[in-house]
Amino acid sequence: MARFKNGPWGGLFGAIGPVEAYMLNGQLILRSKRSKSAKLPSEKQLACRLKLKMISEVLGTMTDFLRIGFAPASSGADINAYNAAVASNIQHAISGTYQDYQVSYANLQVARGSISNTEVSATVNREGSQLIYSWTDEHSHPRSTDHAMLLAYCPEIRQAAFNLCGNKRKVGHSILTLPEYWAGQQLHCYLAFREASGSNSSNSMYV
Known about the structure:
Layout: E1 2-4, E2 12-16, E3 19-24, E4 27-32, H1 43-59, H2 63-69, H3 71-74, H4 81-92, E5 94-95, E6 102-103, E7 122-127, E8 130-135, E9 147-154, E10 159-163, E11 173-177, E12 188-194, E13 205-206
Antiparallel strand pairs: 1-2, 2-3, 3-4, 5-6, 7-8, 8-11, 9-10, 9-12, 12-13
Helix pairs in contact: 1-4
Pfam families: DUF6266
InterPro entries: DUF6266
């Protein structure tokens, strides 16, 4: 059964006979109604499903961050920022062979855009419940007013902490406050830069 999601002038949602209707990025999409296959999945299909599950478990903890970090990568495409992040990280952030896959956190991308960070040297230090991110002081950089985006992921707890609008690039440092119960846990840390409007970002760096 199909429904008008927001009354008679809203988008159509649901099934009409053999056709399904749904909205994607403000556009009405129609497709043939999917049916369950009686065939057993191939090893390749199982491998793809496993990769998707593993990446989704990580990225699902940071959807608000990805909404900004991957906004440039999804701009003009029939895909949202989260799905763009999933597609990119399935390709680049899974290592190993089927049934022995691992998430390669050093290759995980939490932001992807066209702002350059090729000359940025960054470090992070932990002081109690705070992470101190530092990078090369760039007062003369043409994008010195871009804001830092800070993220830390804790694989044991499967949670992320982040700051979407840290200090400006020219400041050279910014702080991310962590939950107290993260004390002693291994963390994977990332840094990116974004325009104040959020419309563009740099690629993220693993620090």
